[in-house]
Amino acid sequence: MLRIDPRSPDPAAIRTAADTLTRGALVAFPTETVYGLGANGLDPDAIARIYAAKGRPAWNPVILHVASIAGAQALTRHWSDEADRLARHFWPGPLTLVLPRAAQVPEIATAGLDAVGIRIPAHPVALALLQAVPFPVAAPSANRFTQLSPTTAAHVEASLRDRVPLILDGGPCAVGIESTVLDLCGATPTVLRPGMIDRAQLEAVLGRPVALASAATHAAASADDTTTAAQRSPGMADRHYAPNADVWLVETTGLTEAAKGLAQRPADQGQTPRGGAVLLRWSTPDGAEAVADTWLLRGGDRVVAMPATPAEYARALYAALHEADATGAAVVVIEQPPATDAWHAIRDRLARAAR
Asked: Which residues pair with 168 in a beta bridge?
């Protein structure tokens, strides 16, 4: 692990990372969303190392990261006016555009599909690294497949350990969940994976409606099913972003009933003794203390007050789930945030974690 100032990246550290990528090895590095596991995006063998390190199935494409719009244009056969408007408005930032794949993009990067996801990240370390290499960097999240995405270098180390030769430690990620993925290949722009750039923001720039991918589009099979058809975006597996603990999602009105169910849960679940329980609350209305008292059923149980705004909640979510795993919690009960557009991406991540 190599510590690096996220505000002013050390050129020597960036050179070390760039040299590692150039020789075909992997580098984990921070972006504003989550930490990425990077490889030369034009080298099929290097990209294959990402899949091997993560245990990632071949049907799940990776996103190519670039330092400039010109770099993005080189990766697609058709750079549309809409792509240009979106890129100039949101890049660098947490938006991935899915566009027709150029011939130089290896099929392994796109799961064999004729479309590629591209973005420019908004993180000084990521941008410095991208500017230091003459190729795009393929970089899915730096964790084992379906597990919690990392928002710190320590999360990367805990998940991948000796599977990655170099980790750049640039501190915690500012956004905290993965980028919005927008497909521009069809007649209607379609959000494949929701993120903190929401549909209303996209529509405001495009001046026309943006669709959300249907449930059928997201009907990916389980992580160990190697026959699954290729997906157009990362993060569409049915179970994803999941901690080791069981995840229960409950509405606010169901908290008391969930507490009763937890109290009655057997002390031994299969081969693992029951650990503590963690309740993630998105709000602290009147009577929160009473609810907390209800939930403190055993000494190891904890109540965690989550931020009340979507941006702050997203920034804290994966760290809270990593902490629950680190303390050996067997169950994480999550009070659902509101079912509004502003919370759509967060509810998507919670739903996948709970499956």
From this structure: 2
**Residues 277, 331 contacting (CB under 8 angstroms):** yes
What does the block give as tokens for 186? Answer: 């069809």
Q: Which is nearest to 130 in space by CA: 79, 71, 173? A: 71
CA dist 290 and 34 (Å) reads 35
Q: Is the pTM of this model over 0.70?
A: yes
Segment (H or E) for 124? helix 124-131
Residue 77's identity, in one-letter code, is R
Euclidean distance between CA atoms 45 and 39, whole angstroms: 9
| CA–CA distances in Å: residue 304 to residues 19, 307, 346 | 42, 10, 17
Residues with Cβ < 8 Å from 156, sequence gap 6 or more? 28, 35, 37, 142, 143, 150, 164, 167
Q: The tokens 């389980």 sit on which residue?
A: 222
Q: CA triplet 246, 251, 257: central angle to 5 degrees? A: 75
Per-residue H/E/C for 147-180: ECCCCCHHHHHHHHHHHCCEEEECCCCCCCCCCE
Task: Find the helix or strand (DSSP H, E) in which 86 lies.
Answer: helix 81-90
pLDDT tens column, 121-162: 999 999 999 999 999 999 999 999 989 999 999 999 999 999
Compute CA distances 93 → 6, 77, 121, 146, 206, whole Å. 16, 22, 5, 24, 17
